[in-house]
Design a protein that fits this description.
about 300 residues, alpha/beta, Collagenase (Catalytic Domain), seven-stranded mixed sheet, three-stranded antiparallel sheet, 7 helices, 12 strands, globular, binds zinc ion
Length: about 300
């Protein structure tokens, strides 16, 4: 089996998963992929990047009918969702374009984060954790007070590329580049919400959630320069082309929930998450330091 995994790693792009921030827009580059080398125990990532052998999901948590319903939710449309996740239903693998989607959750089924970033304050990381926990309907991420208790560390660095940061999957944890934050003429609230959207996005990648911007790789929106309300795609606020709805803050979508449910089947300790999405609606909203959940009916 080892050679198969090695081939997969060889095929996986070495590029980091990055949120790209130009002067005015948030774009997205890469989806969760196994690191080129298995890379635990590095400075900023204590838990090895993981995906199950062959990408095979735990089939005990949902019926085939429920899996079909979950993947149907992830389809979305041209600029929302990700059609590759059909493989969960058809082949029972959590893969994107034939490659395993990886996570950094670890053996306990809860992502432990330690924060060293000043750009993303610990309060913001706690809010992002609250956001995902409310989407999951249970604790899937927590902020720990010691680096040696974390799966990975959020920290700041520098990059000459015009990127805001990203989930590295290669031992460097979640990295942000504060020097590349060049948003001007935007209210404090909108800036706060935009930063938080980026943080929530990167934590989503740590769960193994790929981009949800439409098409087989979830990258239609970013490729077309389309900004969306989907936080796992190109989210923006206050710019030409930003969805007016984003003025309200950062909202979860049923696609986030359904994809988290599918990702949870690929974790080292598989978990049933966000199962509510099968029969009800729920929207988690982050707005300027406040996280709320609304049962939504429409
Ligand atoms: Zn991303």
């Amino acid at each position: 089996m080892m050679w198969k995994r090695l081939i997969q790693w060889g095929l996986a792009a070495a590029a980091l998963a990055l949120v790209v921030l130009g002067m005015t827009q948030l774009n997205v580059r890469e989806n969760p992929q196994p690191a080129v080398k298995q890379s635990a125990k590095q400075d900023y990532q204590r838990t090895a990047t993981y995906s199950p052998a062959g990408g095979r999901i735990d089939r005990h948590l949902y019926s085939q009918k429920q899996l079909r319903a979950l993947t149907a939710i992830t389809h979305g449309n041209q600029y929302r969702g990700n059609t590759s996740l059909d493989a969960v239903t058809t082949r029972h693998v959590y893969q994107l374009d034939g490659r395993n989607l990886a996570n950094i959750v670890g053996a306990d089924g809860v992502l432990q984060l330690y924060n060293e970033s000043h750009f993303m304050t610990t309060r913001m990381v706690k809010d992002a954790a609250a956001f995902w926990n409310q989407v999951a309907g249970t604790t899937v991420v927590e902020v720990v007070s010691r680096p040696d208790r974390s799966d990975e560390i959020i920290h700041d660095g520098k990059s000459s590329r015009s990127v805001l940061g990203g989930q590295t999957y290669n031992g460097r944890g979640i990295l942000f580049y504060p020097g590349n934050w060049r948003i001007q003429n935007l209210s404090q609230r909108n800036q706060q919400n935009w930063k938080e959207a980026a943080l929530i996005h990167e934590i989503g990648h740590a769960f193994g959630i790929p981009h949800l911007g439409g098409g087989p790789l979830g990258t239609n929106a970013s490729k077309a320069g389309v900004q969306t309300v989907e936080l796992m795609a190109a989210w923006s606020v206050g710019r030409v082309g930003s969805p007016p709805e984003n003025e309200q803050g950062v909202k979860s979508t049923s696609m986030d929930a359904a994809t988290l449910a599918l990702a949870g089947l690929s974790w080292q300790r598989s978990r049933r998450l966000a199962g509510w999405v099968l029969n009800s609606n729920r929207v988690v909203l982050y707005d300027n330091g406040r996280v709320t959940t609304t049962p939504k009916t429409n």
